[in-house]
Specification:
mainly beta, single chain, 11 strands, 0% helix
């Protein structure tokens, strides 16, 4: 009854930019922290950036200064602005959110969106 839908992935050249979006919908009472994770082939899924309900942010060291996470609470949506992309940023990017529908908070994941950085 809760869905997270990501969009905005694609193929970009090194040094280029992409903007990812993740929209939450369904039976939502409140949303706590939301974040972006990524998983490259053969590797574990790692945190990229996270933003709290109040707007505090945290980033992986590898993306600091290049990526910016933001949030529109009215739209239940987060964004990831990715600049100065590198080939090592290539991965499937997943959105995660802590959502309360009725009583308890659960973590929900999106289906993922592919980001490929290549010339």
């Amino acid at each position: 009854q809760v869905q997270l839908v990501e969009s905005g992935g694609g193929l970009v050249q090194p040094g280029g930019s992409l903007r990812l979006s993740c929209a939450a919908s369904g039976n939502i009472f409140s949303i706590n922290a939301m974040g972006w994770y990524r998983q490259a082939p053969g590797k574990q899924r790692d945190l990229v950036a996270i933003i709290t309900a109040g707007g505090s942010t945290n980033y992986a060291d590898s993306v600091k200064g290049r990526f910016t996470i933001s949030r529109d609470n009215a739209k239940n949506t987060i964004y990831l602005q990715m600049n100065s992309l590198k080939p090592e940023d290539t991965a499937v990017y997943y959105c995660k959110a802590g959502i309360t529908s009725t009583r308890f908070e659960y973590d929900y994941w999106g289906q993922g969106t592919q980001v490929t950085v290549s010339s």
